[in-house]
Design a protein that fits this description.
Layout: E1 8-9, H1 10-14, E2 27-28, H2 48-54, E3 64-71, E4 78-79, E5 87-89, H3 91-103, E6 108-114, H4 131-143, E7 148-153, H5 175-192, E8 196-199, H6 206-216, E9 223-230, H7 237-242, H8 262-274, E10 278-282, H9 288-297, E11 302-306, H10 308-319, H11 325-339, E12 343-346, H12 349-357
């Protein structure tokens, strides 16, 4: 046809005949756009076996921690409406969940206690026979050292005002008075057998205060997981239903401003200097930049909490058929791992372990 360009031979495309005269001169059509690529990243995506071979980050059940809510006075688990599939546990159902977590190979469980009675100073949180201390003992009795038993060290579940510390005469959280209460809580939880204490209150000096109290009492092996970068987030809503929070107002004076990043690094540095063994970023997905920045800077393990609001959004969208639920679960957790977290707290932990097994 007039004006049609002649087909080019392999020799014309590659110049191979100069090196290998016997190369067949088969005719091939011209590329539609430019020349053929010599670098083809798609080669490494051709099959699931190849993709697994070259995967840069891997998610494993041992990196996952399951948060569990234990409600005083329950004889049966109670559903949490904003967290589909998550419940307030009775002692019996908690032991079953802990056993399942250990059998799934999870890295640990994080226990939260919800008492019947609350007061201004969170007395139930330091009571050796309080709901959280009983849950720790029950968990240790059930699984021992098969999985890591963590407990939340904060006053918000135990105070009638819902704040993470005790209040002064003006109604503000009294940082230093709260540290004394945290030290009492730490001893109660350590005496009950917790392996790891999760310091989540964001009080200045909390790690040093707790470490000093534990060491003085001979609990030198108890690990401190510092919620070093815990943001004042709107993603905590369903959690507050789960723990029946009495909070009025907000926690902006002690939790971090979502606008700040450098501040998080400062908080992390301070907690490590005070003796934190592990540091945490909370929430996870809206703060992956913080997870990455922290993991790039420190030499201690970095955890991230995939919080209730993140979980609830996925569950709500999946219930409406808008997303592939299981795919999004693993994609979300992998993104947290990719950002640099080596430990992930997630309400999907046991289910995700099953998905990872295939």
């Amino acid at each position: 046809m007039a004006g049609e360009k002649p087909r080019r031979s392999i020799d014309e495309v590659t110049g191979l005949s100069d090196l290998c005269p016997a190369t067949p001169q088969a005719e091939i059509p011209s590329p539609r756009r430019g020349t053929f690529p010599t670098v083809r990243p798609r080669r490494l995506r051709n099959s699931s076996a190849i993709r697994n071979l070259v995967a840069e980050h891997r998610l494993h059940a041992s990196q996952l921690v399951l948060p569990l809510f234990v409600r005083e006075g329950l004889t049966e688990p109670r559903a949490i409406s904003s967290l589909p599939g998550v419940v307030q546990h009775s002692p019996e159902s908690m032991r079953k969940a802990v056993r399942e977590a250990a059998q799934a190979g999870l890295g640990g469980v994080m226990l939260f206690g919800i008492p019947d009675q609350r007061d201004a100073t969170g007395s139930a949180g330091v009571d050796p026979d309080g709901v959280l201390q009983r849950a720790i003992r029950d968990t240790i009795a059930e699984v021992g050292d098969e999985t890591v038993v963590m407990s939340d060290l904060c006053l918000d579940e135990f105070t009638d005002h819902g704040h993470c510390g005790v209040l002064d005469a003006r109604g503000n959280v009294d940082n230093d008075a709260t540290l004394l209460r945290y030290a009492e809580m730490a001893l109660a939880q350590a005496d009950a057998g917790a392996h790891v204490l999760g310091l989540s209150g964001m009080m200045d000096g909390q790690v040093a205060a707790v470490r000093s109290a534990l060491d003085a009492a001979g609990h030198t092996d108890v690990i401190l997981l510092a919620y070093a970068a815990k943001y004042a987030s709107g993603f905590f809503g369903p959690f507050r239903e789960a723990v029946e929070s009495a909070l009025e107002g907000d926690r902006n004076t002690y939790q971090q401003d979502p606008a700040n990043a450098r501040e998080a690094l400062r908080e992390v540095e301070l907690d490590i200097a005070e003796g934190a063994d592990i540091v945490m970023v909370k929430p996870a997905l809206p703060y992956l930049d913080i997870v990455h920045a922290v993991s790039s800077q420190v030499t201690v393990p970095v955890a991230a909490y995939h919080v209730s609001g993140e979980y609830a959004m996925v569950e709500a969208a999946a219930e409406r058929g808008w997303i592939d639920r299981e795919r999004v679960i693993l994609e979300s957790l992998t993104s947290i791992r990719r950002a640099g977290a080596s430990i992930i707290l997630t309400y999907w932990a046991t289910e995700a372990a099953g998905l990872l097994r295939g």
